[in-house]
Amino acid sequence: MKKYAYHLLVLALGYGIGFAYNAKGLFSIKEQKQKQQEISPDEFSEEALVALMRELRIKYPEVALSQARLETGNFTSAIFKENNNLFGMKMAALRPSSAIGINRGHASYSNWKESVVDYALFQSFIISRLKIVSKAAYRQHIQKYYSETSDYLVRIDRVGVNGNDAIFKPKM
């Protein structure tokens, strides 16, 4: 009888721990669904882009937003519309990627958010290899390796986004 009581006690404890763990997991799933409902993958806006960059902790978001504006022609290019590609990214060969394929020579994503995730992966890959982690070093790297043009930094600067723009201020 003691043997069964011990097994029942262990079973009850396991069930209780499992129930508590599962309840916590369900709560986080509900939170994730609420966030997804607030900004669905199909609804793109610069505000949603900046919010996702904050959530993913993308460094130098003003640089990334300038790149997105430039690479997509202010979000009107075919690569953006067909591939959900905000940054003109090519298919990654040496790092993890969220791309699902290639179209028109550029990476293709299931939605625009996956493009931002891929940019975050790209950025973390690059920053991990920089000798000095700074905005200037990051900008030098993207000038040298990201673009095929010699005036890339001039072009993204011309777009005129900086960290003080209203889009980067939290909404109250």
Q: Could you give the topology of this structure?
A:
Layout: H1 2-38, H2 46-55, H3 61-72, H4 78-83, E1 101-103, E2 106-108, H5 112-127, H6 135-146, H7 152-159
Antiparallel strand pairs: 1-2
What does this structure look like?
With 172 residues, the protein is mainly alpha-helical. 59% of the residues lie in helices and 3% in strands. A two-stranded antiparallel sheet has the order 1-2. Strand 1 and strand 2 form a beta hairpin. About 15% of the residues have low confidence.
Core attributes:
172 residues, mainly alpha, two-stranded antiparallel ribbon, 7 helices, 2 strands, 3% strand, globular
Distance N to C terminus:
63 Å
Structural class designation: mainly alpha
Largest sheet: 2 strands, antiparallel
Which regions contain 5 or more consecutive residues with pLDDT less than 50? 5-30
Tell me, rounded to a whole number, the average pLDDT.
81
Shape: globular
Largest sheet strand order? 1-2
- Helix count equals 7
Q: What is the gyration radius calculated from CA atoms?
A: 22 Å
Strand content: under 5%
Tally of DSSP β-strands:
2
Helix content: 55-70%
In short:
By secondary structure, the protein is mainly α. The chain is built from 7 helices and 2 strands. The protein has helices at 2-38, 46-55, 61-72, 78-83, 112-127, 135-146, 152-159, and strands spanning 101-103, 106-108.
